[in-house]
Amino acid sequence: MIAATALLGAGCQSSAPAPIEIRIATGSPAAVYYAFGQSLATIINRELPGVHASVLVTAASAQNVSMVANGAAELGFTQADVLPVAPVGGYQVSAVARVYDDLLHLVTRGDTTIRQLEDIRGHRVSVGASGSGTEITANRLLAVSGLAHVITTEQLGLDASVAALRAGRIDAFFFSGGLPVTAIENFASDNLARIIDLSEYVEPLRRAYREVYVARDIPRSVYGVDPVTTIADPNFLIVGKSLPEDLVYDLTRLLMERRDELAAAHPAAARLSPLSAIATAPLPMHPGAVRYYRSSKP
């Protein structure tokens, strides 16, 4: 009888459905995507029974799009400029929301001669990790400014870029992220730092590539350095097109209803709102997200 009961219990356990896996492709552990993704995963695991969310460290935007498109992740964050304007066969991913804007930082030490973009000529500069949105935006900026072939470039992620700048192995680095970027904040707190104003290149980028680029300010209060205006690029939370509509509805609902909790994980999430979230052009929105926004109208 005991053996039969044990077998029956084992059979019941084995018949329990496996949880639905939601892998969230983020970026560097020191950047906004990761903090945002970790908080979102915590909320999903707490509030959606039968769903297990986890966070993946990646090179960020370009890799995230690829991972969501090929099924290696279910959710991911990406800059808008990483997405093709009109891909053959249509987009392989869908949007859940526009979440906040990334600001392109060009960071150098405060004791260098680099005071404007032109001054990086002849210097060693990290343009971001291979497969990142930073790399795409930085290389486009270098192209429109005529500096692409007059600097020595490195492809370093955020943490490696900060370490290399501290050690003097590079003279400056680019990073695109929501304010504040913790790794840059930490660097500026214990080093003489400078962020370079890039405002004059917003319009050349818009003309050469796409109109997603806008000018945004980095005030002194963010990093304690001189205020600048730089290039900003919207960020989207994307999802695989095949994810069930009801599940995406619930994910969108949690994203909107738990904005305060997400903002506690990183201030960039405080910019979330249903009105701005639906501005995901040119990327179509997933039907589950569309249903949520329509149902939540006052």
Could you walk me through the main structural features you see in this protein, from its secondary elements to its overall organization?
The longest helix has 16 residues, at 32-47. Residues 1-8 have low confidence and may be disordered. β5, α4 and β6 (152-154) form a beta-alpha-beta unit. α2 (32-47) packs across α10 and α9 packs across α12. The N and C termini lie far apart (60 Å). With 298 residues, this protein is α/β, with parallel strands linked by helices. The chain is globular, with a radius of gyration of 21 Å. It is built from 12 helices and 10 strands. This is TAXI family TRAP transporter solute-binding subunit. InterPro entries: TRAP_TAXI.
Features:
disordered N terminus; 10 strands; D-Maltodextrin-Binding Protein, domain 2; TAXI family TRAP transporter solute-binding subunit; TRAP_TAXI; ten-stranded mixed beta sheet; single chain; 298 residues
